[in-house]
Specification:
single chain; 80 residues; 3 helices
Length: 80
């Protein structure tokens, strides 16, 4: 499961890098990318949070499969 989460994180990071490539003279595409980038960053935050939960459960000798993806609103309020 951790490998699946890490693979998803790598996929999202690759997509993020593509979305951050410069756009010249196309405001509509820039706005579209900005929206996609925001969603992608939220998904990344959720993946990292889930991975941290799983690792914490392992350290606490608990079942990591009990970790659950939390809503974006909850994850976005955490301080990094």
């Amino acid at each position: 499961m951790d490998q699946d989460i890490q693979a998803r994180i790598r996929q999202l990071i690759d997509e993020e890098q593509t979305l951050r490539e410069p756009i010249i003279n196309d405001q509509e595409e820039a706005e579209e990318r900005a929206g996609k980038l925001k969603q992608l960053e939220e998904q990344l935050d959720q993946c990292w949070d889930l991975l941290r939960q799983r690792r914490a459960k392992v350290r606490a000798h608990e079942d990591p499969s009990e970790a659950e993806e939390r809503p974006v609103a909850e994850v976005e309020d955490y301080r990094q």
